[in-house]
Amino acid sequence: MYIIGIAGGSGSGKTTLVESILSRIPQNEIAILPQDAYYKDNSHMPMEDRLMVNYDHPDSIEWELLLKDINGLKKGETIERPTYSYLSCSRLPETIPISPKKILLVEGILLYTCLPLCKELDMKIFLEVPADRRLTRIIERDMKSRGRTALEVIERYYKTVRPMHEEFIEPSRQQADMLVMGGGLNGNAAEFIAAAICQKININCK
Predict the structure, then answer these.
(1) For 197, what's the count of Cα atoms within 13 Å in the CB-facing half-sphere?
(2) How far out from the chain centre does Cα 92 lie?
(3) Rounded distance, CA 23 to CA 7, Å?
(4) How open is the CA angle 160-165-169, to the nearest 5 degrees?
(5) 35 phi and psi, to 5 degrees?
(6) CA–CA separation, 60 vs 67, rounded Å?
(7) Domain spans of the chain, in order of start
(8) What 3-state class would DSSP assign to 154?
(9) What was the pLDDT predicted at 206?
């Protein structure tokens, strides 16, 4: 199994890049694990307390479970990937079965802050996007899919997103093998990455 990490600040276009890579690789050859599915379960907490959790801090992720699932896939086991709701700020009871494939793509803002995870990754990609562009994307995304107002998004950005980016995410880019300038909108980078993956595992890209 060839394991790829895609990281970068919030709003850098990780989902866009993943979708662009997927459009070039046969679907039966690749599995995906999003870091966000592994947020710790806070369902035992009152809603007002859940909203106060710093979800941009490495401690918000259940790294042990993510590593366990990666190792299970490497052993040829089918795992039950957790699901998480941004609206309720809690893990959902439903899980998604993920079968082992030739390629495993793991994506999330905090991936490279976990050194044991970095050791599992064969290719580490970091999306480099200016802060003002990322903020614009964050506002659009959180208003559309996470039920937040523009004011709530901006307040959260300056309270946690930007400080955590500067403290944890930006320094973690040093772990990367490749920087993608412009983030997910860099179509040439997606084509290059997909071609490199296909060559590495000896399959034909679409």
Answers:
(1) 31
(2) 18
(3) 19
(4) 135
(5) -55, -35
(6) 15
(7) 2-201
(8) helix
(9) 67
Q: What is the DSSP letter of 104?
A: E
Residue positions counted in the chain: 206
Radius of gyration for the alpha carbons in the chain, expressed in angstroms and rounded: 17
Q: Which residues contact 158 (CB under 8 A, 6 or more apart)?
A: none
Pairing of strands 2-8, 79-85: unpaired
Q: Which DSSP symbol is given to 119? A: T
For the beta carbon of residue 97, count every other beta carbon within 10 angstroms: 8
DSSP-assigned beta bridge partners for residue 108: none
Residues 6+ apart with CB under 8 A from 181: 128, 189
DSSP code for 14: H
3-class SS of residue 174:
helix
Cβ pair 95, 80 in contact under 8 A: yes
* pLDDT tens per residue across span 152-200: 888 888 888 899 999 999 999 999 999 988 877 677 888 888 888 888 8
Q: Is the dihedral of CA 120, 123, 124, 125 positive or negative?
A: negative
Q: Is the entire prediction scored with pTM above 0.85? A: yes
Distances (CA, A) of 47 to 8, 41, 52, 127, 153: 28, 12, 9, 33, 18
Positive or negative, the CA dihedral 34, 37, 133, 122 is negative
Q: Give per-residue burial for 56-83: e unless 16+ CB within 10 Å, then b.
A: bebebbbbebbbebbeebeeeeebebbe
CATH architecture entry for 2-201: 3-Layer(aba) Sandwich (3.40)
